[in-house]
Structures are given as structure tokens and as C-alpha cells.
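In response to reviewer comment 3 from the previous cycle, which asked for concrete evidence that the modeling workflow produces usable outputs, we include below a single protein chain processed end to end. The sequence was submitted unchanged, and the resulting C-alpha cells are shown without manual editing.
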Amino acid sequence: MSKTLEFKAFCFEAYRADKKLTGRETMLLFKKYGVLDYLGTCYDVLHTTGRAYIVEDIDVFIDARRNA
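The workflow returned the following C-alpha cells.
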């Protein structure tokens, strides 16, 4: 498994657990707003941050896309 894919899986599970979502709900949300692409593009910066920051960053990203 590539480091980027491993990181995406970590972010997915962290977000799912923190928001108390099912895997399906999380995947639908991530697909709708392009979160997995974002995580891949920003891997170099985000993988150096902590779990709480990543979950908050995903929320910010989704809110920005939702309100665009």
C-alpha cells in the first residue's frame, strides 16, 4: 500500500470515528466534496499534522465546498 493511500485510509477512519458516521456515510460525503483528491494533493503538508487537525481541516474543506 502506498503511503498516500495509507494516509487517506487513516484520515477516512479518523473522520468517520470522530463524526460517528458509518463507512458508507463517510464515503458518500468524501466523494461528494472531493475529499480524497484533496487529501492526496495535500499529502505532503497534512501527513505531518495530528489527527485532530486533520479532522478539523476536512471539516473546513467540506464547509468551503458546500458554501461555494
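DSSP finds five helices and no strands in the chain. We consider this sufficient to address the reviewer's concern, and the full set will be provided in the supplementary archive.
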